[in-house]
Amino acid sequence: MKAYEAIAQSLRAEGVDKFFGLMGDGNMWLWGAFCRDPAVRGYSARHEAMAVSMADGYARTTGKVGVAMVTCGPGLTQCGTSLIAAYRGKTPVVLIAGHIAEGSKNRTQLMDQKRFVEACNTRFHTVTSLDNMAEEIAEAFYAARINRCPVLLNLPMDLQEEDFDWDYEYRPSTQFLPRRIETPNPDQLAPVIEKLIAAKRPVIVGGRGAIMAGAKDEIVKLGDRIGALLATSLQGKGLFAGEEWDVGISGAFASAPTEHLLAEADFVLGVGAELGYYTTEGGLIFPSAEVARIDIKPMPEEIGVIPGLYVQADGRKAIAAINEALEARQVRSEGMRTAENRAILDAPAHVFTPPSDGLDPRALATNIGAALPDDVLVTCGAGHFFSWVGMYMPLPKGAEIQYSYNFGAVGQGIGVMIGTAAGNPGRKHVAIEGDGSMLFNIQELESMVREKLDITLVVWNDAGYGAEVHKLVAKGFNEKLAQWESPNFVAIAKAFGGDGVQLNDASEVGAAIKVGLAKGGLYLIDARVSPSTPTEPYAKVYFGEVSKAPLLRRAS
Predict the structure, then answer these.
(1) Which residues are CB-neighbours of 456 under 8 A, at least 6 positions away?
(2) How far is it, in rounded angstroms, from Cα 552 to Cα 257?
(3) Strands 66-70 and 18-21
(4) Rounded to whole angstroms, how far apart are CA atoms 76 and 152?
(5) In the chain, fewer beta carbons within 10 Å around the N or the C end?
(6) What ranges in 295-378 are assigned the alpha helix state H?
(7) Closest listed residue to residue 46, CA positions, set 443, 454, 445, 489
(8) Would you place residue 554 in the very low, low, confident or very high pLDDT band (cuts 50, 70, 90)?
(9) Burial 186-222 (b: 16+ CB within 10 A, else e)
(10) CA distances from 220 to 236, 323, 324 (A)
């Protein structure tokens, strides 16, 4: 048995049956051996960075470790941004890369791969010998699973072709995983309970962790008991859709009434929500509130924007324990659920004047949300446009949304959406990406078609880098420096073997999404929106305007 065959055997033992990558000298023998197994499918990317982003999207929506394969040297350096994005998103990814032997005479692609990936917030694990190989591979997967982070599995090219003279035995990392601490520590929970009892104006913020824990019903019950407003982080968008006291996203993407009411909070409980910079708007959205967090992960590494109490536990179990304690003490409170606050939430929304230089972005986001089927997967890229998606696009029942904004990097969305589609075959999938980001990695449209993935893709097309355009305007510079004449994205999609349509009006997007979902494959919707209309967060920060964003309600 060759070493690369043993490595392939190890990957199967770790449960890997799908991977993403770009083939080269440093990984081709492993790739070939691994794909001899008919249960394994490799997805070929056209750029190494997108292979990592694909593994990132796959891991987020399947709960498995995402695996990517690239070659040595330049194959690895292409991955830097995507590795940091996976780290910021706390995604378990194992990136497998070849490595030129230190003594090789051909040193063209030789580099210090350890220093590079560690600078990208990625753990470095290398295979040092055949004797140690099984243990070293397992350690790499263990590190990714336990720390929820990207890990480089470094494979020297000469070692990959060595022969085993003995039976290869591999014990997968899953055999060594400790039990998660899910039951809340009563000593940690006690002060949170006392704060909730004392709170006059409580708010509960649910995040992606609350969704994963299935904590919604217990949170709603707690909210009813203490009179709390129910908000979410961006990643938790839609969690409380349909609830009477759902106030939508907290932080930079909050509606005007939500922003007004959250400023009055005296205690905020985050459940599976980091309560980081954007969720708290740099700490400004809760100016007078004490804070507590409940999360499955160990104690946070930093104090954070807003210091407070911390309980390590499963979100559902912790909130259930709080409900039990409050029931025993017969706690009931009106809290924030007053007639005055109801009137604020139900006040008529501001009527905006539609722009005349492109599709109305507010109408576009609203109509996309109205067209989404129940249980849909939504993937959203990063850029100026994703504020519209966060603030104006309602989600239907059972929908799940993933954002690629980790590390604040544009151009990542198309990889995340491919990994998401690969990990969820048969599930309806609508993706949204900006035109500037599309042009970073437009070659991956060919990957979607080649790999026969079903993705209805809305290109939010303002013919420029919207964030930079509005910042240039605010500072008195020429915004044309960040704009261009848009290419024909539908023609490009068709050239790669997909299909699509260019919208003439925002009202047409619902019918276009229906066609795309029914048709399958790549269906690209080119939505040419107004380039001069800034989102509410930009209008507030850069132009000093007061937010008038309406409270978002679920699509019917």
Answers:
(1) 429, 430, 431, 513, 516, 517, 523, 525
(2) 10
(3) parallel
(4) 10
(5) C
(6) 315-328, 339-346, 361-371
(7) 443
(8) low
(9) eebbeebbebbeebebbbbbbbbbbbebebbebbbeb
(10) 14, 10, 14
Residue recorded with tokens 């229906």? 514
Residue ranges in 199-296 assigned as alpha helix (H):
208-213, 216-226, 256-262
Sort 175 into a burial class: Cβ within 10 Å, 0-12 / 13-18 / 19+.
exposed
CA 531 to chain centre: 26
Class of domain 3-176: alpha beta
Token digits of residue 65: 């470790």
In eight-state DSSP terms, residue 529 is: B
Give the CATH number of domain 186-346; options: 3.40.50.1220, 3.30.1330.40, 1.20.1530.20, 3.90.1150.10.
Answer: 3.40.50.1220
Neighbours of 541 (CB within 10 A): 16
- Listed residue (462, 456, 455) closest to 387, CA to CA: 462
d(CA 244, CA 224): 10
Residues of the chain with CATH 3.40.50.970: 3-176, 361-543
> Global pTM?
0.94
Distance CA 443, CA 71 (A): 19
Residue corresponding to tokens 């932080």: 251
DSSP code of residue 184: P
CA gap 361, 393 in Å, rounded: 10
- The overall average pLDDT reported for the chain is 95
Whats the size of the chain, residue-wise? 556
Select the CATH number that applies to the domain covering 361-543 from these four: 3.40.50.720, 3.20.20.70, 3.40.50.970, 3.40.605.10. 3.40.50.970
Separation of alpha carbons 357 and 360, rounded Å: 9
Both tokens of 38, joined, read: 């008919």
Q: How far apart are CA 542 and CA 476, in angstroms?
A: 11
387-399 residue pLDDT tens: 999 999 999 989 9
The structure tokens listed for 48 are 């190494």
Position 93 pLDDT exceeds 80:
yes
Q: Is 90 exceeded by the pLDDT of residue 134?
A: yes
Token pair 């590795």 in the structure block, residue:
83
Q: Which helix (H) or strand (E) covers residue 125, if one does?
A: strand 123-126
Cα 267 to Cα 101, 196, 258, 302, 339, distances in angstroms: 57, 7, 15, 21, 20
CB burial of residue 112 (10 Å; 0-12, 13-18, 19+): exposed
Output the CA torsion sign for 219, 221, 224, 225: negative
Extract the tokens encoding 36.
Answer: 């001899």
